[in-house]
Amino acid sequence: MAGYQPVMNLGRLALRLTIGGTFFVHGTQKLFGWFGGYGPDGTGQFFESLGLRPGRENALAAGATEAGGGALIALGLATPLAAAGLSSVMITALRTAIWNEGFKTATGEHEVLLAVAALALTDEENGTGWALAALGAGAAGSALAISRARKQPEAPTADPAPASPTVEAPTPSV
C-alpha cells in the first residue's frame, strides 16, 4: 500500500482542479462575459426571467460565488466555505431554472454532480460534519436568496416613448 497515497493525492488534485476550474469558468462567464458568457447584464436578464430580482445583482453574486469558490476548491483552501457557497448556487439553479416546475429525471445532473463533488471534497478533508454543515448552509443560502429575490419588484419594462403632444404655435400679436 505504499504507492496508494500518492495516487489518491493525484486523484484528489485532479478532482479539485476539474471542479474548481469548472466553477471558476462559470463564474467568470457571469462576471465578465469570458468563455462565451453573457456577463452581468445578459445573465441578469435571464435571472430576472427566473424571478431572481434584481437580476444583475444576483448574477454578480452568483458569479462571484462560483469564481471565488471555484478558485478556493482548486487551491484546496477553505473547502467547507467554498462548498457551502457553491452548493447554494447549484441548489438555486436547480430550484429556479431546472426543476422550477418540479423534479424531473434526467435533468440537473451537471449541477448535482458539481455540488456533490465540492461537498465530497469537504467530507474527505474535513469530515462528514463539515460536509453536512456546508450542505445545510448551502440549502439555507439558496432559500434565503430565492425568498429575497422574489420579494423584489419586477424591473420596469421599457415602454415606448409617449407620443409628443401637438403644440400649436402661438399666434403672433400685432
Short descriptors:
single chain, 71% helix, 174 residues, mainly alpha
Descriptive notes:
This protein is an all-alpha fold and 174 residues long. It has one domain. The chain is 71% helix and 0% strand. It contains six helices and no strands. Helix 4 runs antiparallel to helix 5 and helix 4 crosses helix 6. The longest helix has 29 residues. The protein is globular, with a radius of gyration of 23 Å. The termini are far apart. The C terminus is likely disordered.
Count up the domains. 1
Using the CA coordinates, give the radius of gyration: 23 Å
> Could you give a short account of the major beta sheet?
none
Write the element-wise H/E pattern from the N-terminal end onward: HHHHHH
Contiguous low-pLDDT stretches (5 residues minimum) are: 169-174
Identify the overall geometry: globular
How many beta-strand elements? 0
Number of helices: 6
Portion of residues in beta strands equals under 5%
Give the termini distance in whole angstroms: 111 Å
Round the mean pLDDT to the nearest integer and report it. Answer: 90
Structural classification:
mainly alpha
- Oligomer class: single chain
Helix content: over 70%
